Amino acid sequence: MRILEIVLLLLVTVLPFIKRPVLKFIKKKPLIIGILSVFALHLILEGWRWQMVLIYVLLAIVIWRLSMLTEQSSHKLTLKRGLGYFLLLILLLPSWALPNILPVFNLPTPTGNYQVGTHVLHVKTDMEEPITKDANDKRELVVKVWYPTSNTSTSQQEPYLDEVNRTSFITKYGGGLLPPSTMDYLDRIDTNVYRDATIAAEAFPVLLFSHGYGSNASGYYALLTEIASHGYIIINMNHTYESLGATFPDGSVKLFDYDFQGSDGANAMQYITPIQEAFSKDLSYEERHAILRVASKEYNVTHMVKRWAKDMSFVMDQLEGWNERGFLKDRLDLEKIGVFGHSRGGGAAGQVALKDARIKAAANIDGVQWGEMMDTIYSQPFLYISADWPAEHPDINAHVYKHKSTDFFYRSKLLTAGHPNFMDIPFMIPVPSLAQTGTIDAELGIAITNQLVISFFNKHLKMDATTDPTTVSDAYELLEMKVYKGGVERP
User: Fold this and answer.
1) 306-323 in b/e burial notation, b at 16+ Cβ within 10 A?
2) Residue 73: what pLDDT?
3) Cβ distance 331 to 323 under 8 Å?
4) Please, are residues 347 and 341 in contact by the beta-carbon 8 Å criterion?
């Protein structure tokens, strides 16, 4: 919550119970003027938002009660007065909860040498669209580029999430019962990102980023802004129909396809059940590995990961043309291409690194990489970051990454972190039980993640000999790490 919001909340919480003693020191008229002044400053400096409406109502009641109070007013606790206090206590619960559960939050300020700009590109492919029912549909993508800039003076700061993603967020989490205006308070978020700012005048390494399934494709401001500020151009994928939504240049919108989700996952349990049973039984690693290997071959998420990997490879096909003309001209270092992603996007990042030799380094942030990785080995450096899953959670990736890499392979775990801690979710909803995040401080969790990802790509993409991911694990007790080279653990 913001400072004046907290002041107003404290006023409506405390003043009704101590108004008489307060009036012995402050006269009624100056007190009311002071309260109204705080309210006016709040509206001017911070702006109103719907989460504060109950507080505004209670504030009006407090001012009314103060104005009615006289020296002759009874001090006795009557039934009517007691019911009033009881009603106040009931209203205070949501008054405290709403602005704290859905705050005007602060995103971390980027620490790199650059400010960050964004630019949207429309990618038309020659691939068949596998999700829609129209056989003539060709797959189209909208990607968002995050890049270093040194000049934001002529650019506007980007609002947090576009309209379609706000509406889709409400549909997903609000059951369609809340109006889109519910998310208007996000206009007050300082994103630290500037739309269409001039790209800094040099060529930068390129990172492709793939989002989680059914999430906001650009709901990773804390992650992507920080990395871009350290001198990377990030191509933020938006996997059409499997993100919450995408807005195309002609104004058309393509939302998450819930019908496809249902049909695509209709037979999922016939593959998931053997995997669950393999972890519940007392089996050796090799016995369990054989079961997982077979079950994962036709699992629908395996096909999804491969589908998303094709999206990224097609976008990589466009990089040379983008580097020759248009907004990104001469700004892409095509000898230094990496890939990373979160959740299903992390699995897709691992898949594209497995199949596309243009990828020089890859990172998977808490995603399961289903499919053929169980049978093969990476030839480039690879970073795997895991949330702190409970002991009973099946460790699929212990089997997926059995062979690791002929190069460096980093297996790390962010202790006390949950799966959404790598997104903006813990900032948007700072209540772990609601956001399903871990107990790690939101800023600390994303700071550790950012430092680890940046140090990894600095070393293995920029070839910076002065940096090393192990220094990040050495600096933080909450980061566990094992390092392998050629499949052998290093001391």
Assistant:
1) bbbbbbbbbbbebbeebb
2) 59
3) yes
4) yes
